[in-house]
Structure formats: C-alpha cells, structure tokens
Amino acid sequence: xKDSTCIFCKIANGEIPSSTIYEDEDFRVFLDLGPAARGHxxxxxxxxxxxxxxxxxxxxxxVFLLAKKLALHMTEVLHCDGFNxxxxxxxxxxxxxxxxxxxxxxxxxxxxxxxxWNPGSAKPEELAKLVEMLRVD
Length: 137
Ligand code: 5GP
Ligand code: ZN
Hints:
Oligomer: single chain
Mean pLDDT: 97
Low-confidence stretches: none
Order of helices and strands: HEEEHEEH
Number of helices: 3
Distance between the termini: 33 Å
Shape: globular
Bound molecules: guanosine-5'-monophosphate, zinc ion
C-alpha cells in the first residue's frame, strides 16, 4: 500500500528524485537532506508502513541485513570511525516522517552528530518489576 500524502512513499517509488545509493524491488536507500553526519542515509521500504509496529515481518528481517551490507560498504568508502543504526517510532521518540525508515549514520571522530541520551539510574526493585512485566518466554 502507498499513501498519496506521504513524502517517503513518493521518494521511495521514484516520484520525487532523491540521492539514491541503493534500490531493489522492496527498498530505496537515499541520502538524508538534513544529515547528522556526512553520508547519513535512510533505508525506506517502497510500501507504506508508518512504523516498526506495522512493518511486515519479511521486510523487517531484510532491513537489518541490508543495513549491515550498507554499513560495511559505507564504512569502507567513507572511512568513518563508527556507525549508528537507529530508528524512531512516534513523535515522542523523535519520528518526524511517519513512513518507516532506518537511519544509517556514519560517525567520525569529533563530529557534532550528538546522538545520545541522559542516562537515568536503574533501581534493583524497578529492574525486577520490569523483568516480571516484560519477560518473553
Ligand atoms: P525521523 O526524524 O522521522 O526519524 O527522520 C526523518 C529524516 O528524514 C530526518 O533525518 C530528515 O532530515 C529526513 N528527511 C525529511 N524529509 C526529507 C526529504 O524530503 N528528503 C530526504 N532525503 N530526507 C528527508
Ligand atoms: Zn509512505
């Protein structure tokens, strides 16, 4: 399914031009227009899925294989010093385009990407409670 109001549907399906570095039947990978660091790219499925909760299982497993392949390739070509692979779901989590995408962010010593969070502190009783709630057997 495509969403006629969605910019990533249009880019992924070639209706809007993009700086594409990879394309297959199911995905387009293109450079981010507001890069966190040099070479920042987005893996975007051609079908519309708003987020990870909606993403179809086969594509979900393929997306990380593709991320690994491209991370290796980009690291070799760009000579970056590290790599972030990240994905936001929901506005509160930082998602601004509501069509699933995986960020591929090459990292360089001294870059200003600033991808981090303020660490809290985990209390043992809270950890135990969360394990009880979240454990999947
Ligand atoms: P999010 O915040 O949803 O995880 O990431 C959206 C990303 O898409 C941002 O990094 C933003 O710079 C990028 N972006 C938004 N609109 C466009 C666009 O029209 N073209 C490209 N190439 N990137 C875009
Ligand atoms: Zn879309």
